[in-house]
Amino acid sequence: MSVYIDGIVSQFRVIVALVLRDMRSRFGHTFFGYVIMVLWPLSHLLTLLTVYLFTRSLVPIGTSAPVFLATGILPYILCLYPSRMITMSLVQNQPLLYFPIVKSFDVVLARSILEIITAFWVVVLFCLILFIFDVEILPIYPEDALLAIAATIYLSFSIGFLSAVLFKLVRAWMVVLIISMIIMYSASGALFMPSALADDVQYYLSFNPLLHAVEWLRAAYYDGYNYGLLNKPYLVGSATVLLCLGIVIERVMRPYLLQA
User: Fold this and answer.
1) What does the alpha-carbon distance between residue 68 and residue 231 come to, in Å, rounded to a whole number?
2) Containing H/E element for 240?
3) Which of 186, 206, 218, 238 has the fewest CB atoms within 10 Å, i.e. is most exposed?
4) What does the pLDDT read at residue 143?
5) 89-113: average pLDDT
6) Which helix (H) or strand (E) holds 201?
7) What burial class does residue 10 get, using C-beta atoms within 10 Å of its C-beta: 0-12 exposed, 13-18 middle, 19+ buried?
8) How much is the pTM?
């Protein structure tokens, strides 16, 4: 039993060391480097909110445009922003893979932890800004909101892990990933109500797991929200399938990952 405990402790120390190294290599030795990484997605959120407020006079549901937009954009920030950075983790940390104690999963997990922390601060600061401007940002069902956020983060990690392995093997995968992200974002219902579309369109949109993340978060904010499109098991199941696929490919292609 002590051998297993020592192994877990050793692996924990490796992951902590990788997180700290990633922070120093990407953000430098000053606090301002990390602040810039937080402000970048936050500025994206605020820009979209400003444009939306100036171009739309009515919102499809509720009375608050900031809340409607936030429930649509936050899943994108929590999912696609981190997964894009996680994708580059193995390529950017190639020398570390030559150490026997460092595994591909450790490198990806360390990057994921850092990206999740960054996304957390983006959400906190965004909610704080809305609160300062007297926008009611608290959900009606806090438990559902937390579960939706957790499921979105899980999807982000799964996409990131699979993409990190594929990008390490095939550099052209980044182009595929970016195109996929654009499609996922456009079809997520972030800026529109999917339930207002034709049934056939809704059917095809329902294959997008990010749409279910948006629907889940909105269901936590709007009482009696249309649950027709929301499929929570599909969101979690999609993330699980992507993660398992990434693990299988990583195990099979592990010898080639060191050479790619």
Assistant:
1) 20
2) helix 232-252
3) 186
4) 92
5) 87
6) helix 199-205
7) exposed
8) 0.88
Distance CA(211)–CA(192), nearest Å, equals 11
Token readout for 87 is 């994708």
Tokens for 258? 């060191």
Record the tokens describing residue 126, joined without a space: 């965004």
> Cα separation of 62 and 59, whole Å?
7
Taking only the tens place, the pLDDT of each residue in 179-195 is 999 999 999 988 888 88
Q: Which of 149, 158, 154 is nearest to 214 (CA)?
A: 149
Phi, psi for residue 11 in degrees, rounded to 5: -70, -35
In this prediction, residue 255 carries a pLDDT of 80
pLDDT single digits (tens) 136-181? 888 899 999 999 999 999 999 999 999 999 999 999 999 999 999 9
pLDDT tens, residue by residue, 58-83: 677 777 778 888 888 888 888 888 89
Residue 82 in tokens: 């981190």
CA distances 59 to 84, 191, 193, 197, Å, are 30, 10, 10, 15
First to last CA, the chain: 37
